[in-house]
Amino acid sequence: MKNNAQYYTKTAQIIHWLMAIIFIVAWLIGFYSGNFLSYETDGSFKGDVITLHKNIATTIIFLVVIRIFWRYTHPVPELPDSMSPSMKVMAHLGHLALYLILLALPITGCLFSWSAGHPAPVLYLFNIPRLIGENPQILSIVKPLHIYISWFAGFLVIGHILMALKHHFIDKDNVLKSMTRQK
Ligand code: HEM
């Protein structure tokens, strides 16, 4: 939804920054566990770290659904006129890719855990109901998928941050402010 709004709504801003923090923390913990820990040398500590990764990362599923709903039911600021039409298309495609990634990562993460015979816990409170049982064939697909998507997501988020900083410090436009201010 678009109109003459200059800033995202307070709710959209809160969800955006909450998801940003959760994404970065979940990414770093997943990366640490996947690349620096092994069951042979770190034993149950690795299990604890993966459990922490899952308990934080599963919240993204709920937040992204709320976020998408909010995005299409509330006014969104227009991109600045100083941007060329092709840059605007690139920005929209980048944002679409971020939404898809934020859905794909927790979905492949849950499928990864379930197919390996483990639960998908949320904030140490409850488990997401299992949609599939232990299944080595599915595991052999969703495990590399989760890892490759997580790498792609890392680059995408770095690009997103760099573009936001470019808007603020080089173009000196309203783009970053639209996600941080109300007036
Ligand atoms: C936004 C959400 C998520 C992000 C950003 C994310 C990110 C990552 C990253 C960066 C890795 C390491 C990849 C590598 O080995 O290089 C990873 C591994 C993993 N993720 Fe996720 N993930 C997310 C959601 C989930 C969810 C919801 C689950 C399960 C409920 C999950 C389960 C796992 C598991 C089991 C590993 C393997 C860890 C290991 O081998 O030590 N992830 N994730």
From TrEMBL:
Essential cofactor(s): heme b
GO cellular component: plasma membrane
TM annotation in the entry: 12-32, 52-70, 91-114, 145-165
Coiled-coil stretches noted in the UniProt entry, renumbered to this chain: none
One Pfam match: Ni_hydr_CYTB
Family per similarity comment: Belongs to the cytochrome b561 family.
Protein name: Cytochrome b561 bacterial/Ni-hydrogenase domain-containing protein
Protein species of origin: Acinetobacter stercoris
Lineage: Bacteria, Pseudomonadati, Pseudomonadota, Gammaproteobacteria, Moraxellales
